[in-house]
Amino acid sequence: MMAGQQIRFDDGAAYERMMGTWSRLAGNIFLDWLAPRPGLRWIDIGCGSGAFTELLVERCAPTEVQGIDPSEAQLAFARARPAARLAQFRRGDATALPFPDGRFDGAVMALVIFFVPAPTKGVAEMVRVVRPGGTVATYAWDMVGGEADPCRDARDGPQAPAPPKLRRIADGGPAGFVDRDGPRCDRNAGDHGAADIRRFR
Question: Is residue 54 part of a domain?
């Protein structure tokens, strides 16, 4: 993404048609890998249309889920999902979360970190709102090799062929998560550091 360029998704239904299937496939694999215990308080940052938020509600038996996104149109779609029986959705900024320190047991950012203008600050905010010993996790498409470019997929529309790695996931082939260790990000890190960024491959 070019410096200064900001990508916005302002149509929840269109995003769901284009990316919903892939978001759920990746999200289910991520939750299998993360294996959270039930009864936790979660924040889903960049929740968009609520696809991953719904997986949290369906699979993780949480006591609370908060979804944050900058797009009111995406949030309107998310609020119409069955997950809204438990999850609450509000407009917000990943780099200035509207919650106090230690409010949640877990913070996730599903397929979003590459859209956050200041990702290090976004991760620092995740760490801030999670209790000590909680879970801070994010994942993204593997764009290093150029095989999965969500911007290209958005331009080409829903009929674009799936990138090879996503086809392997859809067919039940090999896929997994790996740890990407960054600088430690403690509660006093401010804008510095990134704690254990998890990346999809």
Answer: yes
Report the distance separating Cα 54 and Cα 48, nearest Å.
11
Q: Give domain status of residue 5, yes or no.
A: no
Say if residue 152's pLDDT is above 60.
Answer: no
Give me 146's structure tokens. 């150029």
Quick one: three-class SS letters along the chain?
CCCCCCCCCCCHHHHHHHHHHHHHHHHHHHHHHHCCCCCCEEEEECCCCCHHHHHHHHHHCCCEEEEEECCHHHHHHHHCCHHHHCCEEEECECCECCCCCCCEEEEEEECCHHHCCCHHHHHHHHHHHEEEEEEEEEECCCCCCCCCCHHHHHHHCCCCCCCHHHHHHHCCCCCCEEEECCCCCCCCCCCCCCCCEEEEC
Q: What is the pTM of this model?
A: 0.69
Q: Residue 49 sits in which domain range?
A: 12-200
CATH number, position 122: 3.40.50.150
| Residue 6 belongs to some domain of the structure | no
Q: Could you give the number of structural domains in the chain?
A: 1
Q: Is residue 3, in this structure, part of any structural domain at all?
A: no
Identify the pLDDT of residue 172.
43
Residues 65-81: tens digit of each pLDDT: 999 999 998 899 999 99
Both tokens assigned to 134: 């909680």
Distance separating the N- and C-terminal Cα atoms of the chain: 19
